[in-house]
User: What shape does this take?
Amino acid sequence: MNIQSIMSTDVCTARAEDSLQIPARQMWEHDCGIVPIVDSQLKVVGVITDRDICMAAYTQGKRLSEIRVREVISNKVVSCRPEESWVTVAGRMATHQVRRLPVVDGAGKLVGIVSINDLALAAQEKAHPQDFACREVGKLMAEICAHRVPLQAEPGLAKKLPALLK
Assistant: This one.
């Protein structure tokens, strides 16, 4: 089973110069947790998640309309190609501990998005029992969803944080 057969193709996008209000509204209206950030040729230059938006608003103490997407996104994009197998893509999700990946063509243009939900639903609906054992699904989900090690804060940052948020 390849990713093209299970990915979503109706994907909202935003631009780096947009305010965070744009992807936040898209996430609300389309019930999604990620918006790919594209350039003028629809090449993926980053992604933004609901968590990214919340943390930016909290740490910067600004309205979403005052924060630009480029200030928040990571430019390191983990993506996949439509012809890749679900096994390869699931492994990439596990390695990077991400739940959703933009699907791009050979030129890096956005063609869809695939989520952990897509993989789980496809496995349930399409896969043969010998191809996708329940214990493998459990192992995969555990790897993807494992809690990350907290980032080490700068010494004394906890004391400085209230002043930074004003």
About this structure: The chain has one domain: 3-146. The chain is about 40% helix and 15% strand.
